[in-house]
Amino acid sequence: MLAQDVPAAALIHQVAFPRQQYSQQWLQCSFKAAPRTFCLVAEKRGEVVGYIIWAQKSGFRPQVVLELEQLAVEPSHQGQGIGRQLLTDSLPLVKEQLRNQGSTLKHILITTRADNRAQNLYRQALGAEVEATLSDLYSADEVIMIARHIDV
């Protein structure tokens, strides 16, 4: 993600996460939080059609627990494999950045609504499994998924 991509990604954020507010400010903060966060976009014909945010948890560590903080695809482009491609194409880039800071990836942490069908994608693409369910955390029940021992 480049600074000029933030407004387009914010429009996707607004649609994907309608209960959240201040989309542009949220994404701007995430973008500026590098190297704690890694923000990447998917483009089609020069247009931003999706984005992903990865975040290092609990400080810079030799073995990183990485959170898949957000993944969103513009509705008219959903169902075309863009979300999966964001996951599979961005993770090697993030791992390279972690290697550059002297770290390896230990686990991936994902929190998502219990009724989010993207859980299947996280299982298939990352090997993530539901570890816990938290009742009424944000707008509904949330599950915590973890993909364990990615690089360790």
Briefly say what this structure is.
This protein is of the alpha+beta class.
Distance between the termini: 28 Å
Radius of gyration: 15 Å
Q: What is the CATH architecture term?
A: 3-Layer(aba) Sandwich
Mean pLDDT: 95
Main sheet summary:
6 strands, mixed
At the third CATH level, what is the topology name? Aminopeptidase
Q: How many structural domains does the protein architecture include?
A: 1
| Uncertain spans | none
Secondary structure: helix percent = 25-40%
Keywords:
single chain; 152 residues; alpha+beta; Aminopeptidase; 6-stranded mixed β-sheet; 4 helices; globular; GNAT family N-acetyltransferase; acyltransferase activity, transferring groups other than amino-acyl groups
Description of the structure:
With 152 residues, the chain is an alpha+beta fold. The protein has one domain (3-147): Aminopeptidase. It has four helices and six strands, in the order H-H-E-E-E-H-E-H-E-E. The chain has helices spanning 6-16, 23-32, 82-100, 118-126, and strands spanning 37-44, 47-56, 63-73, 104-113, 129-134, 142-147. Strand 2 and strand 3 (63-73) form a beta hairpin. It is globular. The two termini are 28 Å apart.
